[in-house]
Structure formats: structure tokens, C-alpha cells
Amino acid sequence: MMMMRAGLHAVRAFPSFSRSPSGHSVSGVLQIQGFGTQWKSPSAFQSLRPFSKVSLWPFNTQPKDFSEPNDSWSPEMRKMYDKYFALCEVEAEGGERETEGGEKKRAPWRKLPSYNRALKHATGGVYLSKVIQTKARLFTRNIEEEGAAFEYVVFMNKQEKRCVCIFQSGHLLEGPPGHVHGGAIATMMDSVTGTMTGYLSGPVVTANLNINYRSPIPLGAVVLIHSALDRVEGRKTFATCKVTSIDESKLHTEATVLFLSVKLGSFFGA
Amino acid sequence: MMMMRAGLHAVRAFPSFSRSPSGHSVSGVLQIQGFGTQWKSPSAFQSLRPFSKVSLWPFNTQPKDFSEPNDSWSPEMRKMYDKYFALCEVEAEGGERETEGGEKKRAPWRKLPSYNRALKHATGGVYLSKVIQTKARLFTRNIEEEGAAFEYVVFMNKQEKRCVCIFQSGHLLEGPPGHVHGGAIATMMDSVTGTMTGYLSGPVVTANLNINYRSPIPLGAVVLIHSALDRVEGRKTFATCKVTSIDESKLHTEATVLFLSVKLGSFFGA
């Protein structure tokens, strides 16, 4: 048995991120989710091809980015999105973009796309039937109705090794009457912190998730989920996470999360 | 602001539990979820009426118990269900039922029913719109398609202050490719442990949830979630939880959970 922990995380995106709603660069195939910018050289990325070429997309269209604004977003949600999206603009100086190590200089913040499917060819022993392989959907993106469950978008600041997620909770996430389920909050904290860590450290799985619930989140509310990388010790990455009101005056939840780096092939056959 | 924590828990059931699939005693109104057997006297239960009389059920039918077996259950799931259900039979002695404090003697195990709605009249400030109040669904029971997400049933052993949940993970709970999302596991651990604690200690909310992920759960697998009450210190209840394979040979996840007792009215108006 491989030594793996539940909860593989990394950026569910391409090495080159689209930085505007219309800036998709994805076509033809739905790529592996979870293997982000840490492989920047073409040769390193080349080695991903055996997995990344698996086509889940029968048409030559782009997979949906679920973190784009939609009609279910409240004005509050949209306002926060616009605020962070504005921080993703390239900082032009004198009309020209500077380069840095051969790359175009970018603003410190960028929006990460979000898809609803992991790779279909994965280990799962006898349990993973063909039906499950075909129908499997990412837990946080498993409901078609916009606004019903998890509406969220993650903005990453690589320089400061932190990210901010804007999260609007839908009516299907109820726990205590009129409030968000503790498990839904745990899910978002795990996902956001894992996405950040995957972005910064490569593929990781969650080893420990320690959550303190400070005050409940009303169902329907928009909140911010702040996550920051604390330190890296060998295979271990320690991160922190907190959920606050959008003006950051109220602390809802806080957590520490320990991730373990895993090899790329861990979940894809022996 | 009230001092509340996210994650209200208690038995989502009536004081009198149905102990066979056909033994419903529910009719007419959908009761508050989460206020269980701790109020056994009629007068104490009477005080719940202002809330419990709220009718979400326009017809004189019974709310659906989502923990009853359905066609999506695998043979493994059904076999475990039958095993624990057999432990719920009354221990008849000499053909007669003994009484104990005026109640019929029962077997130590009983199956808890599971509904998909909390009370609609709950606090939620400006966030809780009428739409959300009407459409809100319990996070773990929010998907109509049988077998797609969380299929589970909880068996409680009051005497031993512990419970066992049989959990079959559906294809919409994916995290790492082919495996259950860490947040979905957290959700089940929080829910099961909270249900047990609510059953034993009255209404509680989750204050701390500390999870160690030991080995991933394949999507579609059936696992057992064992929860036990550790100790009570004033308002605090400490509980433990672990997720194992159905033969209990493999440990997938373990957690400690701290709950705080709350007053009944916490979530219902000021």
C-alpha cells in the first residue's frame, strides 16, 4: 500500500493561468487538476503528457471555469471579486512590461481557475467502477445549480505566499438552522489551503486539519478565507487558514493544516 | 452577538425513535431536528412546541428518513446495515418485555433516523432570505439522487456512549482523483460525532475538530465511522472518532472533537 493521505491538493489549473475571464488558454482536453506552476519548463511538463492527454472533453471546447462570476453572486460577492481582480492587473511601467528571468512581470495577485473534474484514470482498487470514473465530480463543484452550494473564487499572491478566497455559501450547505455546516466550512478551508500549498509546493495531500469554530456563518453570507504558508520542513508544509467577515472585523473560524508532498504518480496506478 | 459556535448538533429525530423501517411515528409536521431524547417528559417536550409546530410539510405525510436502505446501497453496505439492525431488536425474556423506569426495555443499539431539513425559522440576520429559508437543506442530505453523495446510517449505543455509522461514499464526493475529498470525510466525522453527542448531552455545537488523515478512502467505498464519548467537563463534551474499513482492519482517518452545549433558543431568534 502506498503511503498516501486523503486529500490531494494542488492548483487545479494549467501552468499558464488565465488572468482575465476571457483569457482561457485551455482547449481540447481536460487536463489533470492539481499540478500547477511548479513545472515550468517544457520538458518537465512533457513528462505529464501520459496523464494530461486523457480526454474527458469530447468536443473542442473549454472546460468551464467555475470561479467566474455568475448571476447567483450577491453584490457583496461581486464587489469583493472586482476588488481582488483589479489587483491582478499587470503593473506597467512607462508603458512597457519589464521582464524577470525571461518572464513577463506580473502583478502579485492572480485569479486561479476552478474545474469540477479530476483525472478519470486513478487508482481506486475494486471500488472505482466505470460509472464512478465517468460521473465523479469535485466535491466543492458537484452541484449544477448556480449559487446553491459552494460559490467561490481563489486569488493567489505567490510573492507573499498567501491567498484569499471569496466564498458565498448556498442554501444546500445548512448545518445548524440557518447557518453553514461545520463540515462545509472544513471543506472550504481544506480546499483553499490545499490549493495554495499545491500552487507553492507541488502536489500535496492533507495530513492534519485542526479547526477552531469561533462564530457561526449565516447561510447565504459572503466571507473571506485567508490562507498563508507557514513553513516547509522536508515533505511537510504547514499552513494557516482563517475565515472572516468580508470587512475582516469578525473571525468565524481558524485552522492549522499540515500537508505532505506526494509523488505525481501516487493516485495514478502503481 | 450570541456566543455560538458553528455546527449545531443533536439527534435529528423525535424523542421516540422508530426502530424498524416501517415504524415511523412522525406525522403532520416536520419537527425541529436536533433535539433528541434528553427531553423525555411530556412537559419538557411541550416547551418545544412553539418551534416544533412549524409545518414544513403541507400534506399529512411523513418526512423521509434518508437513512433507510435504498437501491444505491452496495451489498457491502446492506450487509453492514443488516448486522447492526439485528442488534436493535428488543431482548425479550421469557416472551415478555421488561420495563425500566416506565419504559419498555430496549436493545442497547438503535438506528437513528435522518432528515434533510432543519427548522426554517432560524436566526440569520439580513443574510437569511425567504428563498434560503424555504430551500435550505442539510449539507449531508442535499442531493436528491440516491447514492450520488452521502449514503449513511447511524446506529447508537446509549449504554456504551458510542455509535457506529455505515457510510457509502458517492461519486460526487471526489477530492484526490478517485478518492473521497478530505472535506467530505471531515463533514461525516463532524456530523456523526455531533449526532452522538447531541443524543447523549443535548444540543451542542462544534468548537474544535482535529483530524488526522491516515490513508485515503477510495470513491465508492463503504467504511465505518466509529464515534465515542470521551468525557464531559461542564459545557464541554470531548469525543473521539475514527474511520475504518468495514472489517476494521484498516484505519483511514481519526479525530478528536470538542463540543459546547448550547441553549435551545440559540439559533431561534434573540
Description:
The structure is a homodimer of 270-residue chains. With 270 residues, chain A is of the alpha+beta class. Chain A has a domain at 75-90 and 108-261: Thiol Ester Dehydrase, Chain A, CATH 3.10.129.10. Helix content of chain A is 17%, strand content 26%. The first copy, chain A, contains five helices and ten strands, in the order βαααβββαββαββββ. Chain A has helices at 42-46, 49-52, 75-86, 130-135, 182-201, and strands at 8-9, 99-100, 103-104, 109-112, 150-157, 162-169, 204-213, 222-233, 236-245, 251-261. Chain A has an eight-stranded antiparallel sheet. In chain A, strand 8 (222-233) and strand 9 form a beta hairpin. The model of chain A is unreliable at 1-7 and 11-55 (pLDDT under 50). Chains A and B meet through helix 4, helix 5 and strand 7 of A and helix 4, helix 5 and strand 7 of B. Strand 7 of chain A pairs antiparallel with strand 7 of chain B.
In short:
By secondary structure, the first copy, chain A, is of the alpha+beta class. Helix content of chain A is 17%, strand content 26%.
